[in-house]
Design goal:
353 residues, alpha/beta, 7-stranded mixed sheet, 39% helix, disordered N terminus
Length: 353
């Protein structure tokens, strides 16, 4: 009997010491490396936040997955391994995710951006163009040449929103400002990004920003050439201690927690979930020493006006490059209109590719 009791006790202690299986397995797919200190880094910070704040969640991830049929195979592999919630995080994954979601109706898919859904696929995003507008205000107040430079990957609506918001912010405090755009045709091409940064500075730009996966390349070129920089995706101020102005950054973690909780709790909605400055899904980084206290306050006052809904980034008049009034004074662009943006505003120099 004593031996049986000892055996039972030992078995109980062993069982108690074994890890408890996670109730929900969540998968993430990145188009680039999670160490890019940019877009993929920000998404992965959301994954880590999810692990930290939900005890019953296990996460897996795949990096450097192109926006083609390869991502479908990765999603299929995830589902077969038991993943119940999939986060395809790159713009070009959406149509592929819709195909896989149709095959696996019991799995939940949360895609970053886009305007397509299905019964088990939603989209999540944040109005980070609000933060880019504010970054533009800082740039417009700081520039000495009135020439800003923007390194852009692809002319998709999300990128156009940021170019236009940044320019509108700058011109709201300095109507003489123009923004020159160079397209790299790639989310990540360090050589092209550095070359574009060099060219923009040589042409007179004294503030650089961009919408590519990582801000590191153009920020470092700006620092080396002695001009200012505005970051995007994540706080890259450590790479430009002298010329850093501010940055527009993501904060995905709380939103991802809400999405997984909805999948677990049966409250999942096939919707376009959007955060903003007020929810904290998008925010400004800390200011750099290059921004005066007076100019910081101007930016913060405008930020408060946005959060109080006293000011809207896409309130008219919105004027195109050729002078056409696209949104009349008194009108405001809708979510669908901004997420289908296909134009550049007055003050932007460069063409859509």
């Amino acid at each position: 009997m004593k031996k049986a009791i000892r055996t039972l006790l030992a078995t109980s202690i062993l069982a108690a010491s074994l890890p408890v299986a996670a109730e929900t397995k969540v998968g993430f797919i990145y188009v680039g490396p999670k160490t890019d200190y940019g877009y993929n880094y920000a998404q992965d910070q959301g994954r880590l936040y999810l692990e930290e704040h939900l005890d019953d969640v296990e996460t897996v991830y795949f990096e450097n997955i192109p926006e083609n049929a390869d991502v479908q195979r990765v999603m299929e592999r995830m589902v077969r391994s038991g993943v119940e919630v999939v986060f395809p995080t790159s713009y070009g994954y959406l149509d592929h995710a819709l195909k896989v979601a149709e095959k696996y109706p019991e799995v939940h898919f949360a895609h970053s951006g886009g305007l397509k859904t299905s019964d088990n696929l939603m989209t999540y995003f944040a109005e980070i163009d609000q933060a880019m507008y504010l970054s533009g205000v800082a740039a417009g107040l700081t520039t000495e040449t009135n020439q800003l430079g923007f390194i852009a990957a692809h002319p998709i609506p999300q990128v156009l929103r940021n170019i236009n918001a940044f320019t509108r912010g700058a011109r709201s405090v300095n109507p003489e400002v123009t923004t020159s755009v160079i397209w790299t045709s790639s989310w990540s091409d360090p050589t092209k990004e550095a070359e574009a940064a060099e060219a923009l500075i040589s042409d007179g730009a004294d503030v650089l920003t961009g919408h590519v996966d990582s801000p590191i390349n153009y920020v470092q070129v700006a620092e080396r050439r002695g001009v200012y920089s505005v970051g995007y995706h994540a706080d890259a101020s450590q790479f430009a201690p002298e010329g850093w102005l501010v940055g527009a950054v993501w904060n995905w973690g709380p939103m991802m927690v809400d999405i997984v909780n909805s999948a677990e709790g049966g409250t999942w909605k096939s919707e376009h979930l959007r955060g903003d400055l007020l929810t904290g899904a998008a925010r400004l980084s800390d200011f750099g020493s290059a921004v005066s206290e007076e100019d910081q306050q101007t930016v913060l006052d405008r930020q408060q006006a946005i959060m109080d809904e006293e000011f809207r980034v896409w309130a008219g008049p919105v004027i195109a490059q050729d002078g056409t009034v696209l949104v009349a004074e008194g009108d405001v662009m809708t979510l669908e209109e901004t997420e289908k943006m296909d134009f550049l505003v007055e003050g932007v120099e460069g063409r859509l590719k």
